[in-house]
Amino acid sequence: MLSFIRRSSNPFFYYKPKLTAEKRPIIIYLHGGPESQSRASFNPLLQFLLNQGYAVTAPNFRGSTGYGKSYTHLDDVRKRLDAVKDVVSLVDWLKQDPAIDTSKIALLGGSYGGFLTLAAISHYPDLWAAAIDIVGMSSLRTFIQTTSPWRKRLREIEYGTVEQDGDFFDLIDPLNHADEITAPLLVFHGVNDPRVPIGESEQIVSKLKQRGHPVTYHRMEGEGHKIVKPENEIYVYSLVAAFLEKYMGCD
Prior knowledge:
It is built from 9 helices and 8 strands. The protein is α/β, with parallel strands linked by helices. The protein has an 8-stranded mixed beta sheet with strand order 1-2-4-3-5-6-7-8, sandwiched between helices.
């Protein structure tokens, strides 16, 4: 069952699996962009998760398109963590739903959604049972410094520059708050990613492994910013299913 819910803060889609007597774990899916949006269209990964018995919600947090230019710019530069607050606010809303087991909430995001995932689990660590990061940025500072030159200027307009906003990057970057993370983490990154360099995943994975945190990392050979080879998609789906079952599986 799909519902679209327009709240005063941020709108979201709410997908529910077949009704059961048990409370269901839920996955919050965070789209990339941020100048993009989740829509009521077929998403094979979300459908797969629903078939596994998980509820799924897909918010259009501040910075998403489709709700006017002012909304799209509500997360610009030093407003970055306001989008994370939208995700936290969604958790507060979910706690009112008796069908949801709010001790089992996972985050899943790719690219910018991966950054939001890492930011949420590092700045609000007590809310999450698990998290999945796909080609996400772990540091805006190092991302701006290493992304492809053709993207750097475009991204600086959205995120800010190291010269003017480096102090803010250092304050919010998940990499600098890795010691606060408590949720088990699954990470995927394409070796040939020209947008978000693979070092963004490897540096935070390294930090987490140094402190013995449960983190699983998969370098995707022959893949770029998106996982497009069918055999790799099947591989990723199977790993996601096993990871979620381990840490917050449906009873």
